[in-house]
Amino acid sequence: MRHAQRGAVLAGIALAIAATLTPIPASAASTAYYIDSRPGSSCSDSGPATQTQPWCSFTPANAHGPFSAGDSILLARGASWNQQLSVSGTGTANAWITLGAYGTGANPKILRSQGDNDLSVKLTNPDYWAVEHLEVGNAAAGILVYYSTKGHQGLRLTDITTHDNKGIWAVHSTGYPNFPGAPVDPWAAANNIVLSAGILVTVDPALALTASSDYAAKGITATAISGTHNINTLAFSATNEGPDHKQSGTFPLQDITVSQLAISDDDGHAGAAYQAAGLGCSDAFRFVGVTRAVVRDSSFFRGAACHTNSGTAQVFIGMVNDLTFVNNSFVGTPATGSNDQTAIDFEYFEKNVKLRNNYFAGNAGPGVEMLGIHPPDPAFPNSPLDVVTTEIDGNTFAHNNWAKTNATGSDASIHQGGTSSAPSGPVSDNLYTEPNKNFLGGDRIGDLVLTNNTAVTSPGNFAAAQFSGTQGANQWSYRYLSGGGWTDLPTFTASPFGGTWQRTAGQYVGPSGMAPLSGGDVARVWTAPYSGTVSIRGRLLKSDTGNGVSGGNGVTGSIVKITGGSATQVWPTSGGPQVIAGTDGVGVTTNRDSIAVAAGDKLYFIVGANGADNSYDTASWTPSIAYTSSTTPYAWNFTTPTDFEAWNQNAWNQLSAAEVTGGALTLTSAGTDPYILSQDDLALASSNRYLHLRMKNQTSDPAGAIYFTTASSPAFSGDKVVTFTSAVNATGYTDYTVDMGTNPNWTGTIKQLRLDPTGSPGVVSIDAISVGSV
């Protein structure tokens, strides 16, 4: 990405979040200030700000001056405001200041008027602040945390919904458009808002950090943050890149933990007025000027969703050190005609960045892009930032770079572009299915060390991406141990973060989180749909650790295969279950290869309390399972939204719409000859003669057909087709089996398939397609 401006559930989830946080005691002299704008609240801005007579607006709070240790500013649930709240103050490690909510109902809302200089909350130079249970939107920045002095500690952001925060990009706005030579927006520059965000943590560019021990703020957590239709949902953007930082290698923002972040459809500048002003949607999450940070258990979906001349990425990182992304999913970076269109952009000066056990699928550009296009500054030859070191381990890649429009034209899932810096580090134990693509490519990709990266024919079953509120959906179910036997967890509680299956609030399985009770293990269970050999990738770690949170005696983990009535532990390979210590936020890999399964076999991923103490027992584990060989070489299940699983979106016929959502590929026919094409390199042995199709035909025409090409006859023609008949005007799915071997030309090596689902206009939904020998 050539960035234009570098310098300038819920009950279960709520209790799980609470379990991961150190209690914040209040001092004896602390004061609670209540604010309630609702009719009938008896509010008065000249009143005492008590619960019986709260303030109405933010005006008294804005005029209050710095708040004191232990104070609380509490907004009424169910209330809303269109006013900026500006607060400051210094708490202590034993007496945090809280900006939060009280009462019952929906979280309080601070929704502005979409002005280019609107803020919902501005928090200046905070020490030991907890900001929680809010909804912010329609602003240039929902929550702006601004540090103008150094040495601050303690910031907790919890349960915050952000949406429609936009208007600033590259320090420009519609009032100060992003044209060559045009002035920047002075208000944005004064607040160091490079890009709009739902939550923006930034640092005054004039702040001098000269010693290696200097920092603006450390000890920051962001938990259960959701965002949509923003520019960034969450940004840590300390964009002071002056000589002090380059020479000393200082990082303004330190010790950051982000978890349960849910980003979707961040497309804030898609509108015509923003595009005309040269404003883009370059990214949805960013780390700039950061060291020692972890992002885990989070979902990045269709971020950076509008055209941006400089390029797009769901995650942008630059001037960073010691970052870890673990157990996250990065799905569906859209094709917007921009450069890059990647999931993660390593833009400049990255050191010790670890990508562990994440899922990259259906991104228009590469899953990972490492750029060497910003030359080191010759004035500072010893700068520790002028390096790119990374570890890409245990991830699952599926159907990335399908649009083939990143800046250099590389056709790879992991792309390295530019020669000004050399990447180094291992790329190991990854699973990938990238038809018609390379797994790795680019100018200096050969500088990385490759070990045990395995190509698979079908996407891996990544537990978090396929998590569902239906037991058994996508081959996954969720269980607990009781009385020596396993039982399905009985209750599903929905939330913006995927929800949880639970027995009690303290015993549950979520998309990545797992919490057992003493004597009550929990498991996510994968059922093999057909026979073959699978590889497993995963990392099990404690998730209630970091930034002062610790406790408990850890958890245990194991993988057990159930075949009929026989149980075999497949990980660890010897001894009993693996113990994960109570403070182990790094965890251990749970990788296994060459595991034979028969149809119906089950793999139990089990987490247990380590003895009688089940406090602080939340673990993160989102395994991925993929067939490396099977009786069904190809299976397309369309379980990941936006991932067409290499059915060629650039070569379809007579379709007015096509989308992958709700676990199905839904096609809208606009004519009498609609069809879709598979990838063009199936290399499928003709002994796999049975095509299984689960389809709902809502049109009036029952006629369907499967065309094919072979290595010896690579063009579609009327002599290489098998027809079938489907139920019309269907309200549910029907399973069809088409015996392709009835056509004598189904021989040798099959190269490509073409599915003609109907011969009339209307909607057809395809739940799954597979080809195999049975």
TrEMBL record:
Region listing for Disordered, in residue ranges: 408-431
Keywords: Signal
Ranges of biased composition (kind: Polar residues): 408-423
Signal sequence, start to end: 1-28
Descriptive protein name: Right-handed parallel beta-helix repeat-containing protein
Key word Aminoacyl-tRNA synthetase present: no
Biological source species: Schumannella luteola
InterPro entries (alphabetical): Pectin_lyas_fold, Pectin_lyase_fold/virulence
